[in-house]
Amino acid sequence: MRTRWILVLVVTLLLAGCSSGGGRDDGRITLRFQSLAWQEESVEANKELVKEWNATHPDVKVKYVQGSWDSVHDQLLTSFEGGEAPDIIHDASDDLADFAYGGYLADLTDLLTERLKSDIPQRSWETTTFGDGVYGVPFLQEPRVLVANAAWLKESGVRIPTPERPWSWDEFRQVTDRLSGKGRYGVAWPLKEPVSATLNLSLSAGGQLFHRGADGRVTVRFEAGDEVVPRTVHDQVKTDRSASPTTLGSGGSDTLPGFFGGKYAMVPLGFSYRQQIAQQAPKGFDWQVLPAPAGADGLAQGVSPQTLSVAEDSPHKKEAVAFLDFLLRPENMVRLALGDWMLPTGTQALKDPALHTTKDDWATGTALAAHLRPAPAQSVRGYPEWKDKVATPAFQEYYSGAIGLDELRGRLEKDGNLVLARYQR
Which pTM does this prediction carry? Predict the structure, then answer.
């Protein structure tokens, strides 16, 4: 009996030490913060801020846990269902809907500080609002821009666009046609993941694609504004021969050697790609950042900001939010933005002089911040399945010329609505 009692005691103590979520150790709370930072500067900034918090908060320690963008959705789903989710979760807003509606994330509405609520614009909060709750803090965002070979554009004599006077989509097509010839292309579209780029840029032309009815149900309608961007890309590739057909299945980084080698005059990329370009460009290579083309709705484009959420199962939600408030103070948000070469969502952080320099064209990106809007798919349940099974193959076939615009429309609407209907019963 004595041996059995000792065994029970040992097992009980082991189980207590292996509890999921934040725990107490010698009277101290320990919060696990899973970060998806991957660039060296970004990882360093995150770890430094965790260290600074721990140095001034002896009773609430934060443990840095390294995650990966490549597997975050499946990894989080597994950890949620297994009761082992980190307390503080780094993700992107377009990945939150199913987790929020599934009850895995804490509603932060009554936990957030007034400073944080007022500093981040309402349009950014909309990206993490699902139903009546707020399930994440949007803190970093990036516009899609045109990274251009500055010398090539200058030699061609084309008008250089600015945020005040951008190209229209028609003018952009004319410019890429003028820049092309002799084995060189005016633009290289890296569209290995075509859905996000197409939908977000389509906001400038009035495209929305997803339409929510009075009953809350979402349907897909591919209308005139939704056609502008995909038709431009298609015609640049198939009609004008001004866009490289070989990069359609490539990622952004894959286009950089050809860009540096003078094969492409421009590449549409996320703003954070400037870091790779600054590090990898040959000595003397002259590059610049231009705004994406504007349509009927100006420079508007959709974004899915990086977010910080708190697990519903975390026993220390107030402490976790206190850490978020520290991490996202204006001066700290600037450090995170500089580390990731992205833009902060906070209005105070956006005013920082470091984000308005001409070096690496920070000022161009910052000028676009006011035009960023929630991505069209932001709150659509079932979007990941719709994207993977319907939209991605449909756009890829359209851009390659395998199907026409009418078939693209039919597949997005008919097949897409069948997928979304399963999530809206």
Answer: 0.89
